[in-house]
Amino acid sequence: MKATIIFLLLAQVSWAGPFQQRGLFDFMLEDEASGISPDEHAPEIPELDPLGPMCPFRCQCHLRVVQCSDLGLDKVPKDLPPDTTLLDLQNNKITEIRDGDFKNLKNLHVVYLHNNNISAVGTNDFCPPGYNTKKASYSGVSLFSNPVQYWEIQPSTFRCVYVRSAIQLGNYK
């Protein structure tokens, strides 16, 4: 009885045709012959929300932290994720903080701008006029190792920083 079962199994294997290597194009021809378009086999790719938060090119974003240090940037990246709480821009070549660089960042708290080329800081760079300081305040701004003259910065520039000792200036190379 065992010999009969083994014979039947071997007989089925011997009826199989020889292995033929097939390429992708061969499968596409089969699909066309059967009336199936190649797109029907492709998995659906979800569309990205064009208004959703994106991480700036070459930066790394994780858990509301945007890390763009040591990239040779000459300006603050645009379109930062609006839920950013910590922005690390240290060791770049940023020369100025422009109007609106941080305007959509309502939850921004430890801004690292040290070791750049920032020579001036305006009174509205970190806290635009009419900004509700009770809604979001900085817990720290790091500007040391920049050519900015700290005695030329107006005190109101850091009105959104709720701990004055968290402002770091000076020590330019």
Automatic annotation (TrEMBL):
Which N-terminal stretch is annotated as signal sequence? 1-16
State the compartments where it is located. Answer: Secreted, Extracellular space, Extracellular matrix
Domain LRRNT, first and last residues per copy: 54-86
Which keywords accompany this UniProt record? Extracellular matrix, Glycoprotein, Leucine-rich repeat, Proteoglycan, Repeat, Secreted, Signal
* One GO cellular component, as annotated: extracellular space
Which Pfam family, an example, fits this chain? LRRNT
The family database entries (InterPro entries) matched by this protein are listed as: Leu-rich_rpt (IPR001611), LRR_dom_sf (IPR032675), LRRNT (IPR000372), SLRP (IPR050333)
Q: What family does this chain come from, according to its entry?
A: Belongs to the small leucine-rich proteoglycan (SLRP) family. SLRP class I subfamily.
- Complexes and interactors: Binds to type I and type II collagen, fibronectin and TGF-beta. Forms a ternary complex with MFAP2 and ELN. Interacts with DPT.
Its job: May affect the rate of fibrils formation.
Q: What is this protein called?
A: Decorin
**Organism whose genome encodes this protein:** Microcebus murinus (Gray mouse lemur)
Taxonomic lineage is:
Eukaryota, Metazoa, Chordata, Craniata, Vertebrata
